[in-house]
Specification:
The complex is a heterotrimer of chains A (405), B (406) and C (247). Chain A contains 16 helices and twelve strands. By secondary structure, chain A is α+β, with helices and mostly antiparallel strands. Chain C has five helices and 13 strands. The chains are: A alpha+beta (405), B alpha+beta (406), C alpha+beta (247). Chains in contact: A-B, A-C, B-C. The interface between B and C is medium-sized, with 17 and 24 residues.
Amino acid sequence: MIILVMAWRNIWRNKVRSAIIMCSVAIGLVAGLFVLSLYKGILEDRVSTVIHTEVSHIQLHHPKFKEDYEAKFVVARTDSVLSKLRGVPGIKSISARTVSQGMLMTGTGSTGLQIIGVDLANEKLVSQLDSKIIEGAGFGGKRKNQIIIGKKLADKMHLQRGNKAVLTFIDPESNIVSAAFRIVGIYRTDNAPRDERLVYVQRDDLNSLLAIGASAHEIAIILDDVNSVEATASSIKALFENMQVETWSEISPETKLMIDTTDSYSNIFIMIIMLALSFGIINTMLMAVLERSREIGMLLAVGMNRAKIFSMILTETIFLTLTGTPLGILITWLIVQIYQTKGIDISSIGGMTMSEFGFSSMIYPAFPWEKMPNELMIVTGAALFSALIPAIKAIRLKPVEALQK
Amino acid sequence: MWLALAWKNLWRNKNRTAITISAIFFAVILSVSASSLQDGVFDNFIRNMVGYYTGYIQVHQRGYWEHQVLDNCLSQNPTYEANLNSLSNIAAVAPRIESYALASSDETSRGCLVVGISPDEENKITSLQKRIIAGSYFARADSNAVIVSEGLLKRLDLRISDTLYLISQGYHGSMAAGKYPIKGIMKFGAPELNDQLVFMPLKTAQEFYSAPGLLTSYVLGLKTDSKLSSTVGAVTELSAGMEYEVMSWKELLPDVDQHITMDKASMFIILIILYLLICFGIFGTLLMMTVERKYEMGMLVAIGMKKWKLAMLFIIESLLSVLLGCLAGLVASIPIVYYLKEHPIRIGGELAESFKRFNFEPVFPASMELATFLTHGAIVFCIGLILSVYPVIVALRINPVRAMKK
Amino acid sequence: MVPMLSLLMALFSYLQHQELTAQQVVQKATDKMRGETSQASLTIRTVRPTWNREMKVKTWTKGEKFAMIVVESPAKEKGVAFLKRNKEVWNWIPTLERSIKLPPSMMSQSWMGTDFTNDDLVKESSMVEDYDHSFRGDTIISGRNCHIIQMIPKPEAAVVWGKLIICIDKDDFIELHTRFYDEDGTLLNTMNAYDIKLMDGRLIPTRMEMIPADKPGQKTVLIYSNILYDKPLAETFFTLQQLKTIN
């Protein structure tokens, strides 16, 4: 008890020193947590770009469909599949798509592409197609054969909103089907090659041209929580045995690779930052002990035993860490709150110009709640470890020498 | 005289000096190894991505990249090749001719990318031989056989030594058709490559496409990848007067470049945070040092030492200790970075799986560049000096009576 | 009675001539060129700014649905044959000794390096059915009186053009000149026909040029050396078996 009181008093006795150590802990925590927030922001952004515009969380196909994109390999009894899927917990939105490999022709040229038939109302909840449209309003009115094409394709084929394009594709009986479509919108995502290759039409139009009734080739699913992808995928697999069920990481392994790389090396740099923090605290504490050598020598001289001095210095550090920690968390939380919605424009950093980036040079940090326990342990551990060396140093002091100075 | 006095002062309290110097020392080590690791991770990632198929630099006929058809071929040019090879940073020059074709088996047909390669040169850049999972690599440059990517083969339902039928449009609208025995199978992690690549020796491909002596590209491998931009400059200069376009991987793989630029920028933020911590560590040390030496300062001023002289002394002391710390840190970081380069950090878990899938080695090696050492040594030196202003200010404003009261 | 009848006939045909709609004129011109069946030998010349290529082929057609093309020269491609049955195209390649059905991915590719695509071989659009035709005046081409007819695609028709201007000889129903526009009125392609000769009893142009407007120095020329019309050709002629043995 006496040690607690002494430690408490010591903290208040030398406010400058205490403030420095407290700030070291707080700043270390802020640094570590902020770096984690940045990475979480980057990763979430990247995953969600890929998931929410391209692959979605889970996709269902006829097991043979993706081999050759043949129109006949539809999801069997699409309607009943859809209604069964609606009963699966954790699913947020579902879009049934009719997919056809085909060709777009204009008077001056033609190009191969993938035609995706969607119900915009469902599709926008899965791929946010509506928010990517930069010209026009998307599908509207009763008019048949409307098409939304990518900006890149529009530029390549010199197409504009209101123009006509002829789509040619193969129906389930291997007949070639052609139809004229009217461009009602132009979309743009960050992935230009994809914008050149994918066009969207209304599913009813495509289905009637393909004569496949209400069937679909692809069912794209968005879940409430990205972490439940594997679990939900396996429960969907159990529901539909004869279907190909893939998660986003199976559909896009490159994205997975990039994300895992970022995730992994962020951990290494967290370690380095923690090392820097520890060195800072150790040095500061060491200096503090030097400064206090007279005081400690005195305590030793008046008969306080070394174990008590040791625990006194440790207790002091623990107090300071305990005060520094919530401060650090609070500051980080505040910073993240500010930048979470505003974003950090990294194009202004390091002299790199906006043109070097695509459209998303913004980082929106996200507070890494799930990594908090780990982070707290590391910081507290670093602080305690840093206190150990000075504490050992302190009990090794010889009272006479220390007082002499 | 000043120097000697400062030097003596440093030695007088070894403990304190050691702590100050170690603050600088660790700062240098940390910042140097952090940025070496950082550069190394990116370089390695680029090396992996580029070594996958694209190469660091490609040379095409002007206009080929915009409109990738055989009619935009360039003529094989031995003089030019020799000139390229004689450039100091060029490790290999691999000629390629590539175009899309229809591959078919008895059952089915499917689009593919038929690439004619020079087996030895190609292997130096993309290590194709390592990707063989069955059968063998081209032993001779004129063998009339193909190596097919695993995914394509599976979809065509073919096996080793079966016949692959290829049809396409050749040079100047001619018809390209041929049948070839399958000699080997290659596996690529990226589905778009694994599902459509067919390799054959250059001569065979030129015959297939009716394009004797023609190439779509020269793919260049580098000895030192950090000299990319100067090498691009040298190649461009070499290609002056010829209708060639010289493109670096940044133009060939803009999405990878963008990803890396993004990551580098975020890394920059992390370096700033690291430096912030370093500043704070050094400052904390200096602050405590000042607190500890207040008595001494007060004493010196009380016995008549001019304050500016005291400040001068402190400046020189700081200069010496910062310098010592920096030098020691630089010397100590050389073996550390070297170790991290030679024995790179191995990664496990999911990432190792993803890396394996792409045939990348799951490691994070550090890069060892003189510039990194010097830059970060200099930055820490400056930070140390700037922060040393604090004890100087304290010395200038010292009130001897109050300082000695304690 | 007989003169009376012939007079009536003459009057009838006169009236009929007068009453021809723009659509009927186009119909007559198309029917004339195509016939019930046709067998032709022709040279296809591909002209590019830096190179030229000449190919001799033989063709057989029956209505819109069936066609066969066999390449006779150059030597490297001799025997390469194409069969169109309804909307499918098969390609016989002698060096591979097999025929391959052209997949949709190859449809947009140029046919044998010409300004035609594989898809042009199977295109379903019909000059008669898919357009609204109207007269737009008269003109004289190579000394022949021609109708100028404007053709606007019907809204639902799978036609890439926005408008066609076609010039057809008034007496002999020969399509002499066609301009293809997009919907903004930009000229995309021009077709000119020359060298009108009597072939198997029909007066037809024997040289046709297709000139893309946006590619200077580029065109494709078809030169007919011989055409036979309306010789009986069974549907069984247009089979994969025939494709292999046609040479």
